[in-house]
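Troubleshooting log. The previous structure file for this entry was overwritten by mistake, so regenerating from the original sequence record. Sequence copied from the archived sheet and checked twice against the printout by T.R.
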Amino acid sequence: MTAKLQPPKTRIQRKNTQAILDAALEVFSGQGFRGATLDEIAAEAGLSKPNLLYYFPSKEAIHVTLLTGLMTTWLDPLRELDPEGEPVEELMTYLRRKLELSRDFPRESRLFANEILQGAPRMIGALDGELRDLVEEKCAVIREWIKAGKIADLDPHHLLFSIWALTQHYADFDVQVRAVLGPGRDPLQEASSFLDELFLKILKPE
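Regenerated output below.
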């Protein structure tokens, strides 16, 4: 028996679905999954709670939808690491794109961080599945670059971890960064220059 095709969503259905996801992102990124309520998400979206439940059966369903979309956004720059490209430039491009994601998607970054801090109950399958497989694939590429003497001899996993940490920090700890730097400074512009200089030195082969 073939599966019954679902009719395409109407314009109002697409609009309301997006409104719910935008509202949930705002609430979840500020309060975490446990602190957020469906009533708060519905109010933020400008919908009634019964109307929200027409589109999503639970708070968890909304959260999983957001995280699934976020994983795609987060992993795309790593997927584009080209084995045939110039190694240092490929890694520097990846670093810069990760910093751009912190600039453009700070709420999404905090949503992801909150999920990880809670033990990733709704993402563990993706972390030790899709994410792990992609990281292993790209670590193999980095090892070949090291073997060919094109970049410094660094542990590929911890090289990627350091890129994640040093870029996502500017989204997840934005308040702290701005408080320490003080007014009149652009943290991400400064970070871009600093991280370029740092990683060009780190990646340079001996």
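The chain has ten helices and no strands. Archived copy saved in two places this time.
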